[in-house]
Structures are given as structure tokens and as C-alpha cells.
Amino acid sequence: MAAPSVTVIVPAKDAGAFIGTTLETLTRQFEDRSALKLVAIDDGSSDDTGAIMRRHAQDFPHAEVIVNPEPRGLATARNQGLAHVEGEAFCFLDGDDWMQSGRLPVLARALHDMDCDFVRTDHVTVKRSERRLVRAPFTHRGVVADPRDAILPADDRSMVDYPYAWAGMLHRRVLDQGLAGFSDGLFTAEDRPWIWRLHLNATSFAVVDAPHLLYRRGLSDSLSKTLDSRQLHFARAFGEVLDLVEADREAERMLPKAVFSVLTLSSHHLVRARRMQPAVRRELRSGIRTLLARLPRDQAEAVVARIGGPRRRVLARVLREVGHA
């Protein structure tokens, strides 16, 4: 039996309605299924997710199913998968998404032929019957580039605003260098410090065209729609982003982008906080105040001046509370 060349890490919790489709699409990637290793993580599911994973694992010569008795969160589950990577390359796939046929060989070939640390792709969002192409925000396609050059500009979308761990493939050396892991215990925004770490520390990347990954949106239990205590992890995640940038050799150059990201995402959460339970809302606002107190006053005021509507009002109020206005 041939050794696998690509490992696919698939964490899922209570994804019984979708995980079969997710894993079935992996059977339509390589002509020789031994080229792929499946690492599936059942993260404390209360439905039949684990049973479906074990059934589909039989379709692959190389497969492991890890079971967490209690949910440990997406970040920790992905880290568990990283400990089982084999082959030259690896990627992530969430348990409610799926891939078009032949996506993985295209990414593996691009990663190998361009000899870069990681490749990124566009993706398609799926909401009921509506599908929409979302482009990776980088001008050059099929060209090896310095990941640091894709962090800026500060006040427009860039590759650190496209944090989706599943939107690409990574070379094994990124894992060996300690750049591929997530912060254990983060239940949301886990991909924000992850993408910043990659772009600050890896040496090469490319945005390439490939068959699409399809990302389900609008699910009732999606973390992007959740208003419970898991949203409190947003402040911790962006605190880690600020830690990374402040310690970087080009901190002065990169910090305006981090400030812009912190403020725009904080405004989003502050507006949503009105629909949270009072205790969760208070704790979220406390975390955001701590986060905003770290920002340079002049940079924070410049960003807020460009934000309109209710987001500007709630940000200005919090900035006054921390002495920034």
C-alpha cells in the first residue's frame, strides 16, 4: 500500500445531517485513495456523527477516527488532527462543507510545483439554493509571493481578512516549524491568530485556482450566528493577534492593519451584543474594552472616523470609556 501524500483533517460536532456528504466527496479526489489520509475528529457529538465517520473511514486505506467524549472546540480538534498528519501536505475540511471532485490533486500539485509553504483558494458559499463565489483578496494568481506582502493594505480587505483554514493546503514544513497549530480551547475566531501567524512567519504562498470548496452558511447552530458565551473568545483571539503583531520585526508597519481589524470586528460584536443575555453581553464588552485599551489612540481614532452608522457610535462610546476619545 502506498503512503499517503495528503492528510485531510475533518473535525465535526453534531454534523450527522452533513458529514456523510462531506466525507463522500473525499472519495472523489484521487484516483488512488491511498494517496489520501483521513483524520476525522468527533468532537463530543450527541448525534450519529461518530458512527457515520467510522463507516466512511472504511472507504480509505489510511484513516483514523478520534472521539472526544466532551466537546473541546474546533481549535483543539484541529490540533488533534495535526498530530496525525502524514505525507507532504495537509488541509482542513469542516464537517458541514464539501468539495468538488479533483480539488485536492490540483492543490497538491500546485504546492509541490511552486515549492511554497501554503496555497490559498477562492470558495463558494451555499445558503439554501443560493451559491456565491467568494474571491481570495489577493491580486496575483498562480504566482509565488511573500505572505507578508498580502497582509496590507491596512484599510481594505487582505489575506488576513480571509482566515478560513479550509480554503487551501499547507506543506508539511509549516507544521514542523510550529506555524500550523491553533490556540487550544478557542470555540470561535480560532482562525484569526492562525492566519496572522502564517502570513507573518511563513516564507512563501500563492493563491491558485482549483475546483471549489463549498461552505454552508445560515445553519441554525453555526458559530457565526451564535450569541452565547462562545462569542467571548473573540476578544482572546484578537488579543493574540495583537501579541503576534507587537512582537513582529515590522510591528510599526503591520500594526495599523491589526488595529483596523480589531475595531471593525469589535464594532460588529458590540452591535450584536444587544441580542445577548445580559451576563454574556457584559463580559463581551469587558473583553472588548480590554482589547481596545491596547490600541494606539491616534490609529484607533482614525479608523473609527471611517466607520459609519451604529457601529461607529458603539465604538466611540467604548473608546471614551478606555480614555481614547
Q: CATH superfamily assignment of the largest domain?
A: Spore Coat Polysaccharide Biosynthesis Protein SpsA, Chain A
Counting DSSP H or I runs of 4 or more residues, the number of helices is 11
Strand order of the largest sheet: 3-2-1-4-9-6-10
Give the count of structural domains: 2
The CATH architecture designation of the largest domain is: Alpha-Beta Complex
Strand content: 15-25%
Report the CATH topology name of the largest domain: Spore Coat Polysaccharide Biosynthesis Protein SpsA, Chain A
Main sheet overview = 7 strands, mixed
Low-confidence stretches: none
Mean pLDDT: 92
* DSSP strand count: 11
* Protein structure class: alpha/beta
The sequence of SSEs as H and E is EHEHEHEEHEEEEHHEEHHHHH
Helix content: 25-40%
Instruction: Please give the CATH class of the largest domain.
Output: Alpha Beta
Distance linking N and C termini: 65 Å
The radius of gyration computed from the alpha-carbon positions, rounded to a whole number of angstroms, is 20 Å
Q: How does the overall form come out from the CA principal axes?
A: globular
Which labels suit this protein?
globular; 325 residues; alpha/beta; Spore Coat Polysaccharide Biosynthesis Protein SpsA, Chain A; 2 domains
What would your notes on this structure say?
The chain has 325 residues and is α/β, with parallel strands linked by helices. It has a seven-stranded mixed beta sheet with strand order 3-2-1-4-9-6-10, sandwiched between helices. A four-stranded mixed beta sheet has the order 5-11-7-8. It has eleven helices and eleven strands. The protein folds into two domains: 6-216, Spore Coat Polysaccharide Biosynthesis Protein SpsA, Chain A (Alpha-Beta Complex); 229-321, no CATH class. Helix 8 crosses helix 10 (297-306) and helix 8 crosses helix 11 (309-321). Strand 1, helix 1 (19-26) and strand 2 form a beta-alpha-beta unit. The protein is globular, with a radius of gyration of 20 Å.
